[in-house]
Write a structure and sequence with these properties.
Layout lengths: L1 H26 L5 H17 L3 H19 L7 H4 L2 H33 L1
Helix pairs in contact: 1-2, 1-5, 2-5, 3-5
């Protein structure tokens, strides 16, 4: 049952991240606070339910890469050539980062607890 909830959370996350990113690029501005809140809640659900111990290391490495790539808003420079593409990409990546960060924190804590038990 938990895996099924996590799968649905992941599907909803992808859909909301892309739609909110497109909306931010077309309408202007950044993702609304409620979108970030939804991403964080879905990330928590996936962190607790979907990612297995076997997948944790790969997920954490990908999360680190994604969070570093998102840190500078580097995609916004694309707007100088092809507006609003940079804003759209940046908003989508920011939404994905809002989803991945809580899941990564949960997995990191699980890993630390696992190490402490050994």
């Amino acid at each position: 049952m938990n895996v099924r909830i996590g799968e649905w959370a992941f599907i909803i996350f992808v859909t909301v991240a892309i739609l909110a990113g497109l909306t931010a690029g077309i309408v202007g501005g950044t993702a609304l606070g409620w979108v970030t809140l939804v991403m964080v809640i879905l990330g928590i659900i996936v962190g607790f339910t979907t990612i297995t111990t076997k997948e944790a290391s790969t997920f954490l490495m990908a999360a680190i890469a994604l969070l570093v790539a998102n840190a500078g808003g580097v995609f916004l420079a694309i707007d100088q050539v092809l507006a609003p593409l940079g804003t759209i990409i940046n908003a989508i990546v920011s939404n994905i980062a809002a989803f991945v960060a809580p899941a990564a924190i949960i997995l990191a804590i699980k890993a630390i607890v696992g190490i402490a038990r050994d």
